[in-house]
Amino acid sequence: MQALFIIAKSFFDICLLRKGPQDVPRSVAFLRLVVLVYVASSILVYLSEHSLRVALGMAGVDTLLALAFTYVLLAARKLVPRWVQSCTALFGTGIVFNIIVLPLFYWGAAGEHPVAFDNHAFYLLLIILILWSIAVMAHIFRHALSVPFAVGVLAAILLIWWMVGVSQLLFPQAVPEEWE
After folding, report:
1. Are 54 and 74 in contact (CB under 8 A)?
2. What is the block-wise mean pLDDT of the chain (180 residues), using blocks of 10 residues?
3. What pLDDT does 126 receive?
4. Nearest CA to 11 among 19, 29, 131?
5. Distance between CA 73 and CA 41 in Å, rounded?
6. Distance of alpha carbon 87 from alpha carbon 67, whole angstroms
7. Distance of CA 31 to the CA centre of its chain
8. Model pLDDT, residue 124
9. Cα–Cα distance measured from residue 34 to residue 20, given in angstroms and rounded to the nearest whole number
10. What number of CA atoms fall less than 13 Å from residue 59's CA on the CB side?
11. Which sign, positive or negative, has the C-alpha torsion 34, 35, 40, 41?
12. CA distance 40 to 141
């Protein structure tokens, strides 16, 4: 139990930009466990607005794209040995964000629409979480790639853009009618 607390604290410390991906265990078995928990928590988040089929698909696509994107970035810099820890940090912090955002999404879904469009607090919190998530991903990419923070921000934004774009292509029914 204490080991679980130490690992959770490490992910939270990465979210606070106190630690980096080099501070998580380099273990393929641990990465698999973290990815499994990340996928499960992502499905729960997606279920706040989508069917089970779409939630499963979106969680799977996001996960595969993040794994591939991180590998390609690290391979381009000849830093592939950092892939396991980098992905563990990305998905571990993703779990933290999913836990934080889960009640927020269900709060937003409590309105008449899937998201309570008249609720300014919902949007403010969502924007803060998105910006925080980008900063954390940038922090992870900065350490993993040994690049300036600005390059990490670019990598994080590209990853998010790619994930959203591919999800919209594969799951067009998941795009709210208000966005069309």
Report:
1. no
2. 82 96 95 97 92 94 98 98 98 96 74 53 85 98 98 98 92 61
3. 84
4. 19
5. 25
6. 7
7. 14
8. 84
9. 16
10. 26
11. positive
12. 24
- Within a 10 A sphere around the Cβ of 91, how many other Cβ atoms? 25
In contact, 122 and 115? CB cutoff 8 Å: yes
Q: Contact, 94 vs 36, CB < 8 A?
A: no
| Cα(58)–Cα(38) distance, integer angstroms | 12
The pLDDT, as a whole number, for residue 17 is: 96
Quote the distance between the C-alpha of residue 58 and its chain's center: 12
Specify the residue for token string 């600005």.
150
SS3 16: coil
pLDDT at 108: 61
Residue entry with tokens 């803060």? 128
Dig out the tokens for 4 from the structure.
């679980």
Model pLDDT, residue 179: 47
Helix (H, G, I), strand (E, B) or coil at 59: helix
pLDDT of the residue at 178:
47
d(CA 168, CA 174): 7
**1 vs 21: CA distance, rounded Å:** 22
For the full predicted model, state whether its pTM sits above 0.70: yes
Rounded distance, CA 81 to CA 59, Å? 25
